[in-house]
Amino acid sequence: MIINNILTSWYSVNKRDLPWRRTTNPYFIWLSEIILQQTKIEQGLPYYEAFVTKYPSVFDLANASESEVLKLWQGLGYYSRARNLHASAKYIVAELDGVFPNNYKDLLKLKGVGDYTASAIASFCFDEVCAVVDGNVYRVLSRYFGIDTPINTSQGNKEFKALAQKLISPKNPGEFNQAIMEFGARQCKPSNPDCTVCPLQDGCMALQKNSISDLPVKLKSLKPKTKHFNFIVFIFNEGETIIEKREGKGIWQNLYQFPLIETETSTSFDTMHSLLEKHELIPSSNYDLTLYNEEAIVHKLSHQHLHTKFWIVAIDSLASKGVSVDIIKDYPVPVLLSNFIEEFNF
Q1: Would you please indicate which residues are annotated as catalytic (active-site) residues?
Q2: What sequence ranges are listed for the domain HhH-GPD (predicted)?
Q3: Domain residue limits at 279
Q4: In this structure, is residue 100 part of a structural domain?
């Protein structure tokens, strides 16, 4: 098909020189794909380089502790990716003798690997004819063919996957997949693409109908919830604090944080004093309370906005053993807390 030849020709001239494009090693391709999920290349590249340096093989990654992996991932967000990455490495080493799955079907068995990632690895590393469909591909196909089916629906997923599978080159599937994704990232951009130099302009339905800005169609998601987080930063025993591991299935699972009190609205000093009087860690009411940030820090996640205050509690002793403030930077924490730790400097 003509679009296939045009895209691969464009890619041969315009592709970026990226480290994961210089290898067909499935471990490195897998690392890059997991890191780049919901992450721009500019942000993900330093993390990729850090991971391949510290964990040059799947055995090295499997032998690391989850805490070490989360610490290296710190700041990248969507921490379930890191937990799944580590779990899959352990599975590959323990169950597959360190040999990476070499086909789409078996790649899907890895935690955190869905259709897109399995298709990418299978085509890039093993020449399997599996079309990738990511945000860039949705954009190129919806505009070129004039498709207004919402991309965040099951119908849209099926329709675009089938179309991409029809277009993919059976001779060089990996190159075609790379080409269409790169084309969407660099030429058919989300906003204000330069259609005057686009090699697909003659056949582009969106350009002909002046609907570039309308495609792809995506149904609006629910409005993010607002939450109010109050982190209690204890200072006691001449340089100790309390830091605890988050449990459960919520955000920041297995990361560390200061003790947290969640409230329905923004918290005043009087309210915080009342809450602290009931706190299980505080043996008496003899403490000094200060508010680090007068204005709440708004930390935006995909489904919730966290309005956050850091309360400093200076107290002689607590009903719990603390950790030295000198080592809290060793713990994997959410970027929200990492920024506070750097600024507060204890």
Answers
A1: 33
A2: 35-186
A3: 225-344
A4: yes
